[in-house]
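Ex. 9. Protein: Carnitine O-palmitoyltransferase 1, muscle isoform.
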Amino acid sequence: MAEAHQAVAFQFTVTPDGIDLRLSHEALKQICLSGLHSWKKKFIRFKNGIITGVFPASPSSWFIVVVGVMSSTYSKVDPSLGMIARISRTLDGTGYMSTQTKDVVSSLLFGTGLWVALIFTMRYSLKVLLSYHGWMFAEHGKMSRATKIWMTMVKIFSGRKPMLYSFQTSLPRQPVPAIKDTMKRYLESVKPLMKEEEFKRMTVLAQDFAVNLGPRLQWYLKLKSWWATNYVSDWWEKYIYLRGRGPLMVNSNYYAMELLYVTPTPIQAARAGNTIHSILMYRQKLDREEIQPIRLASTIPLCSAQWERLFNTCRIPGEETDTIQHLNDSRHIVVYHRGRYFKVWLYHNGRLLKPRELEQQMQRILDDPSEPQAGEAKLAALTAGDRIPWAKCRQAYFARGKNKQSLDAVEKAALFVTLDETEQGYRKEDPEASLDSYAKSLLHGQCYDRWFDKSLTFIVFKNAKIGINAEHSWADAPIMAHLWEEIMATDWFQLGYEEDGHCKGNTNPNIPYPTRLQWDILEACQEVIETSLSSANLLANNVDMHSFPFHTFGKGLIKKCRTSPDAFIQLALQLAHYKDMGKFCLTYEASMTRLFREGRTETVRSCTTESCNFVLAMVDPTQTVEQKLKLFKTACEKHQLLYRLAMTGSGIDRHLFCLYVVSKYLGVESPFLKEVLSEPWRLSTSQTPQQQVELFDFVKYPNYVSGGGGFGPVADDGYGVSYIIVGDHFIHFHISSKFSSPETDSHRFGMHLRQAMTDIIALFGLSLNSKK
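Predicted structure tokens for Carnitine O-palmitoyltransferase 1, muscle isoform:
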């Protein structure tokens, strides 16, 4: 076969006349092109390193400063206040330079020093400016003169055309809150959830901790905050994610849906070709750092560190702790279809495969009649089960030979692709069941057809709908959401399809066929696979998932209530939960701390005294509309305050978590911390942010709305709720719980949530849109 021949660089045969050396010119060409690609990437990294290293200045500014200094010198003006003369006298000792050369070198050295000093001054000034967060607490829509001046200064010191990582060294460190402030906020957060006697007991524990053990732990935490880039993130990754020994599937990984109501082509291979190419174009922009850093209000930058491990990344299982393996580059993907694994090279003749060529490769895989090898079909179930059996199995059966080579191909791939044999997505004739099925398929599939350890598993269904399953330890959902938005926009508006549904362009018969990965999976290993699959199936079958669009109204109408859409939805969730359970519970809402370098997330405790008062008023028929509106406004203001405190490093839970980690290192027990960190989050919520609104025109394309993404339930007897606000008229919810809990029912909660949303908006007397 041609592809087998091209895989060999040279052959030799021993003959009576000597050694007959036969070179494969095509193979040598590919090796040469591969080397050129590698050196090109190294050069781009080197260039970007220089540009980022001198930010907020630019390399060209060095020339301007040096020329300015030298021009002043020749004009008999000394801008150095005698420094150039001192440098010149120092150079006198060499004895090798003429007077004119010494003048030029002295001016050059001083100009360079001045340029470096200006860079550090600008960078430090920007860091000081970004340490100010008062702007966030200003009333919405009203900006003081001081804030306007501050934002202007930030823009001035932010330089021109920043690259993805340009702001990293200018971002402030995440501050450690004061013990007394955290204790006060914690007690305030649990007061509505505890009976009086229980609250008094917890108050005593908190006060004792704040006076005795707390200051000692706080000292170590302060020390870490001065030394480390971020005092939370490394411990959060290590202890919350990598040390977890339970399954990643359902418990940790999350998923993302595509556009709900439209599909650009019915051809599975074509959709795979376009979208994989879109992903690789995004990776190319990431490698070149051409992705624009996210900036709040188009001014205040967020940390970009989490983008680094988006591709070429895999979580590696260990008996005590997992590790994250990340490569600078990967030139292939691995595709799973009908129980077989295929390695697909992404480059040919030194260039990235085009969409039509990728479609051709996907179609070759779909048409391949070969059967799975023994144990191959359900191999990925190892990544769906408990971590310790997978770690032991990996060490015992995948540490050498063809198994190691094939496993390396999977773990070192740019991403993992599943060509799913099922059809998923929204169906008009059965919208509820179809979306629930779509969500469950993305969350866990068949438990053996997604590689749950990979940073990114990209799924293409038989009817050409797409989705993502993402591992959580390396980054948080907004990073994946940013990629996902660009994939969908590129697929629809840039690449497009031919009228017959195929990708644009031509096929290329010279591209080698995808390569089947070879496995030698022993019976003992197959037994471990079956055991993992059995436990994974129990977990997956226990997930009660409900995914639904909310069309009654959206962000546009909520804003007419003069409140934050997120605060509105959080209060609706509190009302729905109370109607569903008849009680309040500890509520988790994810917020981000990326205003700080290497910041990740913080918890907003959404169940507050104010929200409880509002909910109780809503179920009390004696309360007037005016009373309910007043309580609603108070509850919304409280929620927005808590969200802003979390974003600016004054949250509760990450501080308490780090204090607990320090106590474990010191070998001391804290009854207070032990009790706090064991409290279950029976309502865990998260908003999927829409970061690139300019990519979709919802007025022109009202049906181009994404369903966002979701995650599994955090507590056995609780709910996981995710939502995305798209445009002004659409919100999509994902609700998860467990069938094994007699207290929860995702569809029942969804019904209460719809009713809660309409009940709250009805208080304002606004007419609802009728758009469906």
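Check your answer against this statement. Residues 99-130 form the longest helix (32 residues).
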